[in-house]
Amino acid sequence: MLLGGMKPRFDTSHFGQPEETSFKDKLDALHDWPCLFVFKFIMRPAHIFDFQKLFPDEQWKARNSSAGNYVCITMEKTVAGSDEVLAIYARAGHIPGVLML
Question: Which residues contact 34 (CB under 8 A, 6 or more apart)?
């Protein structure tokens, strides 16, 4: 509760919890495992080779931004659970400057 008995307009239940735990809980609440999961990554074109090295056996599609400064990679993969999703994001996190959606 906020001052004056007002309720917050946004969910604060995850405050004070590790961000990863909150994300894992949300994944588990929204998905029935196993399922097809869509991963999106945005990076500089020079780092697409890093992506290939990290995910050599995966199928993915790449699309350049209109100015060619970035590439968006879409990877669809059947995953067993939220732990596998987090592991893929952790692996992709080794790519310098990658944004993960």
Answer: 78, 79, 80, 81
H helical segments located in 42-81 = 48-54
61-86 burial, b at 16+ Cβ within 10 Å, e below that, comes to eeeeeeeeebbebebebebebbebbe
DSSP state of 1: -
Domain boundaries, the chain: 36-101
59-76 pLDDT, tens digit each: 999 999 999 999 999 999
**CATH code linked to domain 36-101:** 3.30.70.120
* The token pair that represents 66 in the structure block: 């209109």
CA distance 48 to 43: 7
